[in-house]
Amino acid sequence: xxxxxxxxxxxxxxxxxxxxxxxxxxxxxxxxxxxxxxxxxxxxxxxxxxxxxxxxxxxxxxxxxxxxxxxxxxxxxxxxxxxxxxxxxxxxxxxxxxxxxxxxxxxxxxxxxxxxxxxxxxxxxxxxxxxxxxxxxxxxxxxxxxxxxxxxxxxxxxxxxxxxxxxxxxxxxxxxxxxxxx
Length: 182
Known about the structure:
Elements: H1 3-39, H2 42-48, H3 50-56, H4 62-76, H5 83-92, H6 96-109, H7 116-127, H8 133-146, H9 154-161, H10 164-170, H11 173-177
Helix pairs in contact: 1-4, 2-3, 2-4, 3-4, 4-6, 5-6, 6-8, 7-8, 8-10
């Protein structure tokens, strides 16, 4: 390969790297803004330790719980020692946004395990027409994660890019139903 071709590729790679850094910075700003919106002045305390975040996960304020689950999923990372909290929240929390946070935590914790109990719960949520579309979409995406779909999976990316209402028209119901009793 000629030096000029190597130089062109180097410039392209450097441009791409700058774009990735910029995109991450924007995402981080957006995430911080969302967390401040959800937790307000409690954000500093929630970020001070994992146990502080866990306290907010059971706070009476749904916005605090949503923020806590976001922190658990993306800042602290879900752990098996907290799995009962995630399961209980998934099944019992009255707030759909909080339940979505529990879905993310469970999907990350059980990624690639093919856990049948979790697949059943996610499939049940995805099928429940009385639930909000974003929650159903989250459960559907969670099915892919538990089945071990890599983040770059074309089916997963296609489902992720769709808006919640559009997504319901594109669901692979045969796959969802395969986790439910006949």
